[in-house]
Structure formats: structure tokens, C-alpha cells
Write a structure and sequence with these properties.
484 residues, alpha/beta, Fumarate Reductase Iron-sulfur Protein, Chain B, domain 2, FAD/NAD(P)-binding domain, 3 domains, 19 helices, 15% strand, binds flavin-adenine dinucleotide, binds iron/sulfur cluster
């Protein structure tokens, strides 16, 4: 049934049904149900069709949100899908895991008095429906081009670039050191936020679109960057950031203390049915343990919620700032609290205690002082305020830095002071001719939606580069013929 728009005064905000916390704690399935068709239309119709849509401005992909909301309200879902997929390669993924409260929905003009339009849930609904209805089809380029592009990294940046390049008819090969496609979408982000089948059906679509995947293939070990540059007319580096930041607190080497991504990868692999010795031995299994997670970002939130589902005895999250100043999504904190996680705000680890393995985290209370050069209030330890928190599994979720790519690839790739790849922001080219870069390896640890944006932009720049190269080659050949 077609709905009229501007219904935000009379129709309250309603997210799709959320499963009760007690049920969620027992499994790894996504926590929200799908909208029913009439509910999606009703919620889309709350949009006031702003002349200057702040939601769109604050979406990194500048999705045409008001238009696809209107089409959804009118029941024209096939058109809504066409529009939504024109600017986003993975709308159903972004709809699930974007921190909408900081992006589109946080900037929706009706947010203040009436609560925002549920943009992410409608976006997810449109594309999930498109998959169900068979509207999502493999790419059949209008014409094939002979040039091939090699992409290093099968995360969202590499996959978005691959799709865009394939649409233009390029031959695309993706190399990844993992055995599965998806990067952090598969091995970082847990099932309860993004079920693996959602990523795997995207992989199948790309395979059916004739994108070639070379998995278990680490560039720098199994194939060199020099070989890739010979094989392909252009190369895109989209390798993400994987060097886990650490703490120097005494006792950090004790057994029972692990990097967050090792823990999450083990849990994701176990869920996918792989043999995971570190999980089976109990080392990376939270069952029956007092778990302390250190950090306040997305990774920390995923760790605490995974530990709850594995049957931990208690789960605490230690963060040195307060709730208002944490980098993770507020929605995730709410979900975690509902599921029984205890947040210990304004606390930092001072030492890890234990004889043969960790038994306690000695934490100190923090006071937020004057803003520092970055504008954020500097955390300061409060003297003599320490407490010992019981812990037999400690997970360090302190952020990620890039690996040393110039050394790994044996090239003189230029890097920034943060070790991210230096690119020319107009051409997105690195210091090596014909080698481009996109995603976290350029931005530092960021978001999936930004990786998609970068992948799309890089595909455009690679196309311009290859078109210019082909023209120069043609002109050079013509001049040579003329000279002869
Ligand atoms: P990645 O996804 O990291 O993919 C890089 C790929 O490159 C990997 O597959 C890797 O195996 C491969 N690779 C690396 N080096 C080599 C090499 N030498 N040879 C071959 N292959 C190589 N973002 C959100 O928007 N919402 C969230 O809820 C969210 N949750 C997150 C939870 C966790 C635990 C983490 C760690 C991150 C989360 N993020 C989230 C961030 C998001 O996952 C990343 O910003 C995004 O995946 C970056 O995409 P990418 O393609 O640049 O890199
Ligand atoms: Fe919002 Fe993310 Fe969708 Fe953009 S891609 S509209 S930020 S959910
Ligand atoms: Fe609709 Fe909100 Fe976007 Fe305005 S800001 S167009 S009300 S979704």
C-alpha cells in the first residue's frame, strides 16, 4: 500500500523487532528481525523529504536516501533497489553495521524532537528483498576490456573496487592471504552483527561476474609486488590494518592475555566450522571465565558480546574515558549492557597479575583533564585509586596500525607518519606508477562504508589512468607509423 510521506509526527519510530537479550545471549544469530513490507513502508514514510537532506550529506556514500525512502513508502521496491545500489555496492551490509547514530540517522533533521527515520533498517530491507526476489544479478559488462587489474585484499574496499571495475569491463583478479573472501567482514565482525551468508552471497555474485580470486596467496610471500605489476595493467592495494596495538603494563606477557582480533577470528572460524586448536584447547574460549576486555571501540564491543555468547562467567569492559567519549557505537554499548556486560568507565589497566596465568587486572581510576592538542580531554590517573579485577581471560582491543608494507612488498612505497600508505588524493595513486591504494591501509582503522567509498573512488581513478595510458600508447604508435 502506498504511504504518504511526512508521517513523523503521527507515526513513532520503530526499529525491526529486536530479540530479547536472554535469547540473544544463547546464540550468534543477528539480533534484529527483518521488517515486514508494510512496516518498512510505514517507517520510510516518516521522512520529511528535506530539500537539503543532512542524512545524505553525512552518509560517506552520499546515498540518495530521501528518494529511496519515498519509493519504499510507495511500495516501488525494485526502483528503490536500483537507486540504492547505484551508490552502494553492499547496501544490506552497511544497513546492518554502519554506526548510523554517528552518520545518516544521527543527522536526520527529525532526530531531535521525533527520533530519526530508521534509514539503515530500511536500506537493509530494500536489498534483502532484492536478493529474495532475484533482482541482484551478476555483472555482464557491455563490452570486455583487455586490461587486467590486480587487487590485493578481499575486504570491502577491494571487493567494491572489483565490482566497479568489472562493470566497466576490466579483467579483475583479487589476491588475499586468507582462505575466505571478505576480510574483516568474515573474520573480524561477528555473526550477531553480520551473518556470514550475507557476505558469502556477495562473493558468489562476484565469482559469477567473472572476478578471479586467488586465496591463501600472500603478496610479499607467495607472489611479489613486482610480479603483480608485470601481470596487471594496474594494481590496487587494499590490505587493511592488522598490527594490534599493545600495552606496556607489567605482566602483559602472562598466559590468558590475548589480542582481540585473534580471539574474534577464532570465534568466527569456529562458527564457520573450521578446526581451531586455540579454541578447542580452551585458550580462546571464554566459557566459564571472568573476561576483561580493554578498549572502547567496535572491536571491544564485539569481544564483550562474543564472550557473553560463549558462556563467560562475567564480562567487564575497561575503558579509560567515559561513555560520552568512547569511539564505539552507543547502540552497541546498549546492546552489550542488555546482554549483561558491565562497563567500567574511566579505568585503565596498570598491571596484569597472576602466577602461571593472569588472575587479576590491576586497574586505576582515571580523571579526564584539560583538552590536549587533539581537542580531547587527556586521561589522568588518580593516585592510589587502584582496584584488582578478577580475570582469567584478558582481551586487548587497543586499536590497529598498518603493517610495514614497504618491507613486506620489498618496494619503496611511500608511507605517512602513521605508516599508512601515502597516496596522491586526486589520483589515489601511491608513489609507484600504476599502483593505487584504498580503505583502511590509507585511512587507518575506519569503517566499512568508508572502505566501500574508497574502493569505488579508486576504481574510477584506475579507469582514468588506464584510459589515459591506452590513449598515450595509441598516440605513440600512430606517431611511430607517421615517422616511418
Ligand atoms: P579489510 O577488511 O581488513 O580487508 C583487507 C584484506 O586484505 C584482508 O582480507 C587481508 O587478509 C588482506 N591482506 C592483507 N595483507 C595482505 C597481503 N600481503 N596479501 C594478500 N592479502 C592481504 N566497521 C563498520 O563500519 N561497522 C562495524 O560494526 C565494524 N566492526 C568492526 C569490528 C572489528 C572487530 C574490526 C576489527 C573492525 C570493524 N569495523 C567495522 C571496521 C571495518 O571492518 C574496516 O574498516 C573495514 O573492513 C576495512 O576494509 P578494508 O577492505 O580496507 O580492509
Ligand atoms: Fe547510513 Fe551507512 Fe546506509 Fe550511508 S551507507 S545511508 S551511512 S547506513
Ligand atoms: Fe528524511 Fe531525515 Fe533525510 Fe530529512 S534528514 S530527508 S527527514 S531521512
Amino acid at each position: 500500500m502506498a504511504e504518504r510521506m511526512l508521517k513523523f509526527v503521527g507515526t513513532p519510530q520503530a526499529q525491526p523487532e529486536k530479540r530479547p537479550a536472554a535469547e540473544r545471549r544463547r546464540d550468534f544469530q543477528e539480533i534484529y528481525a527483518q521488517y515486514a513490507r508494510d512496516k518498512a513502508a510505514e517507517q520510510a514514510a516518516r521522512c520529511s523529504q528535506c530539500g537539503v537532506p543532512f542524512c545524505q550529506i553525512h552518509c560517506p556514500l552520499h546515498n540518495n536516501i530521501p528518494d529511496w525512502l519515498k519509493l519504499t513508502a510507495e511500495g516501488r521496491l525494485d526502483e528503490a533497489y536500483e537507486l540504492s545500489s547505484a551508490t552502494n555496492n553492499f547496501p544490506e551490509i552497511c544497513g546492518r553495521i554502519c554506526p548510523q547514530d554517528r552518520l545518516c540517522e544521527g543527522n536526520c533533521v527529525i532526530e531531535k524532537g521525533f527520533e530519526s527515520v530508521t534509514i539503515g533498517s530500511v536500506e537493509k530491507f530494500i536489498t534483502d528483498t532484492a536478493w529474495e526476489q532475484g533482482w541482484v544479478k551478476p555483472i555482464q559488462p557491455r563490452r570486455e576490456r583487455p586490461e587486467s587489474v590486480g587487487i590485493v585484499g578481499a575486504g570491502p574496499a577491494g571487493l567494491a573496487a572489483a565490482e566497479q571495475l568489472r562493470r566497466k569491463g576490466y579483467q579483475v583478479a583479487i589476491y588475499d592471504r586468507y582462505d575466505r573472501v571478505g576480510g574483516l567482514l568474515i573474520y573480524g565482525i561477528p555473526n550477531f552483527k553480520l551473518e556470514k551468508e550475507i557476505v558469502q552471497r556477495r562473493e558468489m555474485l562476484l565469482r559469477h561476474s567473472k572476478v578471479a580470486f586467488h586465496l591463501n596467496c600472500e603478496v610479499g610471500r607467495d607472489v611479489t609486488m613486482a610480479e603483480l605489476r608485470q601481470r596487471h595493467a594496474a594494481v590496487l592495494i587494499a590490505t587493511g590494518v592488522y598490527e594490534a596495538r599493545d600495552t606496556a603494563a607489567p605482566g602483559v606477557g602472562l598466559p590468558g592475555i590475548h589480542a582481540a582480533l585473534d580471539y574474534l577470528t577464532a570465534s568466527n572460524r569456529q562458527g564457520l566450522g573450521d578446526a581451531v586448536p586455540d579454541f578447542e584447547s580452551g585458550a580462546l574460549d571464554a566459557k566459564g571465565k571472568n573476561v576483561v576486555v580493554i578498549g572502547g571501540g567496535d572491536t571491544a564491543m564485539d569481544c564483550v558480546r562474543t564472550a557473553v555468547r560463549q558462556g563467560a562467567k562475567s564480562v567487564k569492559c575497561l575503558y579509560r574515558r567515559d561513555r560520552a567519549n568512547m569511539p564505539g557505537s552507543q547502540r552497541e554499548v546498549k546492546h552489550a549492557e542488555e546482554e549483561g556486560v558491565e562497563f567500567v568507565w574511566l579505568s585503565a589497566p596498570q598491571a596484569f597479575l597472576g602466577k602461571d596465568a593472569v588472575s587479576h587486572v590491576r586497574s586505576v581510576r582515571i580523571h579526564l583533564g584539560m583538552p590536549d592538542a587533539s581537542g580531547r580531554q587527556a586521561p589522568q590517573e588518580i593516585p592510589n585509586s587502584h582496584v584488582n579485577i578478577e580475570a582469567d581471560l584478558v582481551l586487548k582491543a587497543l586499536g590497529f596500525d598498518p603493517e610495514d608494507l614497504p618491507a613486506m612488498f620489498d618496494t619503496d612505497l611511500a608511507v605517512t607518519g602513521w605508516n599508512t600508505l601515502k597516496i596522491d588524493w586526486r589520483s589515489m595513486m601511491t608513489s609507484l606508477d600504476g599502483v593505487f591504494a584504498a580503505g583502511d591501509i590509507v585511512r587507518g582503522a575506519s569503517l566499512v562504508v568508508w572502505a566501500v567509498r574508497d574502493g569505488r573512488d579508486a576504481a574510477e581513478r584506475i579507469h582514468s589512468y588506464l584510459t589515459a595510458t591506452a590513449l598515450m600508447t595509441a598516440n605513440g604508435a600512430a606517431l611511430q607509423v607517421a615517422a616511418e
